[in-house]
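Design job #97: recover the sequence.
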């Protein structure tokens, strides 16, 4: 191969590289992406306010346990107890099964049934089975006592839990007072009282007229 042919090959390679560079630059100029100042799909969050979230939480809270127990039905609770009867007995002096006997469970110290092997988690929890504690436990046992042996998933409906707790109360603890339902003072009445107070004006003091004979 002579020098002339070699120069032709080198020239062709250089020309090809130059053409690629030129094509690349032209492509950049021809296709230049532009971006919008604002997103194509704007998400409107103004409809959801902290007030709306708070109201939803209030709706989820629902009536207090005291209110639910005041209108609960022990007979309905007895029917709900069938879910518990696989593991528990309810009669006085009844034998322990997978779970302890539940006669007189209300206000009983946790882990107090003789002859039953409770979990360490329950002993560590301590306290008594009050109305509130029973309600929390029956909602979801594994949330109330981490590490409990009880595999029961819980009762979601507050009304059904109240019925069941009232039935448990009938098992030797009927004299245990129900939680007091707190009465809320009507807002309109208190506002009206404030309005009357603010609108009241002090009456002028009455002048006492002296009898003519006392003028001296």
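Job complete. Output follows.
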């Amino acid at each position: 191969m002579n020098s002339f042919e070699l120069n032709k090959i080198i020239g062709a390679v250089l020309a090809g590289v130059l053409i690629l560079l030129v094509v690349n630059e032209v492509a950049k100029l021809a296709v230049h992406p532009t971006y919008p100042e604002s997103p194509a799909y704007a998400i409107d969050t103004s409809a959801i306010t902290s007030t709306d979230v708070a109201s939803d939480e209030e709706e989820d809270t629902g009536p207090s346990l005291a209110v639910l127990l005041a209108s609960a039905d022990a007979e309905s609770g007895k029917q709900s107890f069938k879910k518990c009867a696989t593991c528990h007995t309810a009669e006085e002096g009844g034998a322990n099964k997978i779970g302890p006997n539940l006669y007189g469970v209300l206000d009983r110290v946790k882990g107090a049934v003789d002859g039953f092997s409770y979990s360490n988690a329950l002993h560590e929890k301590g306290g008594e089975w009050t109305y509130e504690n029973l309600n929390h436990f029956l909602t979801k046992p594994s949330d109330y006592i981490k590490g409990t042996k009880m595999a029961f998933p819980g009762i979601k409906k507050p009304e059904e839990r109240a019925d069941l707790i009232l039935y448990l109360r009938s098992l030797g603890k009927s004299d245990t007072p129900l939680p007091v339902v707190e009465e809320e003072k009507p807002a309109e009445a208190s506002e009206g009282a404030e309005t009357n107070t603010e609108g009241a004006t002090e009456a002028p003091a009455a002048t006492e007229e002296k009898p003519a004979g006392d003028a001296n």
